[in-house]
Amino acid sequence: MWKHALLLLSLAPAWAQLPTDAASIQAGKKAYEWHCAFCHGAGSDGFAANLVSPRLIYAPTDSSLVNIIRTGISGTGMPPALGMSETEIKQVAAYVRSLGRTAPQKVAGDATRGEALYNGKGGCTGCHMIGGSGGRMGPDLSDIGIRRAPASLRTSIVNADSVVVPGWAQVNAELSGGGKLSGVRLNEDTFSIQIRDDGGKIHSLAKSGITKLEKNAAKSTMPSYEGKLSGAEIDDIVAYLFSLRGGL
Ligand code: HEC
Ligand code: HEC
């Protein structure tokens, strides 16, 4: 199966010519609404990657965009296209590129004030890394402005549980000695699990020593900032995060 997939990939032309006429882009939009909007929303308001961007991390070229749509991105929540013809795939790709050509989204806040809040009052540096400095208790935010749209950044800050980044959900373990441990699951196999506790310490536990293991995919270890930061302060932090483009 894999061999066939690789063979097909290697036989595919090295570049893809996307249609540019309005009818194809309109057809692409229809197919997008059917196959993609479920996760990507109208392009920038879904939980998955923000596609309203002139640069897509995984799809710098039209050929890589077509490939991603055809085969998905392994190890992520981006699935391969199911039941789509090559023509439809190219039409959807053309539509995605047209999204990227729309004017950049406007943000209400001030990025400079937002940076100060991020580093100060917000206390975000303790958990997040930007450009190599900060904590490791949450995802690296160096290119978050490409990966997420302003509205969904805001949601993450106000209510962290509403979109939990895969791999960062909370786990709770009850230990046979009577203790309890909660944090983020780093690694797991049949016999053991590694948990980083809320203080940042990494624990390797044998499963035989755990009486109850609760994995809560809908619970984030990030605190919610509703009420702790004002609406205007959150706007400023969103403006700062949206400006982070990983050097792109
Ligand atoms: C089941 C949910 C889901 C569906 C359906 C889905 N995607 Fe995705 N897609 C994702 C996720 C999650 C990512 C982010 C992967 C990552 O960054 O880890 C992603 C990433 C992408 C990327 C890369 C973005 C970047 O910044 O490089 C493109 C392009 C994309 N999707 C296009 C599409 C298109 C077009 C469709 C419909 C044919 C589609 N996706 C259907 C979940 C989905
Ligand atoms: C106690 C640690 C902690 C603190 C403090 C914290 N976060 Fe988080 N953050 C996390 C974790 C863990 C996740 C991943 C789980 C999730 O999606 O909620 C996360 C996720 C995020 C995401 C989504 C990242 C992505 O890859 O999509 C953003 C944006 C974010 N945090 C911003 C902030 C901002 C801004 C602050 C400060 C106002 C902050 N965080 C404070 C732990 C923290």
In which order are the strands of the major sheet placed? 6-5-4-3-7
Euclidean distance between termini CA atoms = 36 Å
Number of strands: 7
Radius of gyration: 21 Å
Number of helices: 9
Distinct ligands: heme C
Major beta sheet summary? 5 strands, antiparallel
Summed up, what is this model?
The chain has nine helices and seven strands; from the N terminus they run H-H-H-H-H-H-E-E-H-H-E-E-E-E-E-H. It has 248 residues and is an alpha+beta fold.
Explain how this protein is built:
There is one protein chain. The protein is of the alpha+beta class and 248 residues long. It folds into 3 domains: 2-100, Orthogonal Bundle (Cytochrome Bc1 Complex, Chain D, domain 2); 111-163 and 223-242, Cytochrome c-like domain (Cytochrome Bc1 Complex, Chain D, domain 2), CATH 1.10.760; 169-220, SH3 type barrels, CATH 2.30.30.100. Helix content is 35%, strand content 17%. It contains 9 helices and 7 strands. It has helices spanning 2-11, 22-35, 37-40, 62-71, 86-100, 111-119, 144-147, 150-158, 231-242; strands at residues 129-130, 133-134, 169-175, 180-188, 192-197, 202-206, 210-220. The strands form 2 sheets. It has a 5-stranded antiparallel sheet, with no helix packed on it. A two-stranded antiparallel ribbon has the order 1-2. α4 crosses α5, α6 packs across α9 and α8 (150-158) packs across α9. The longest helix has 15 residues, at 86-100.
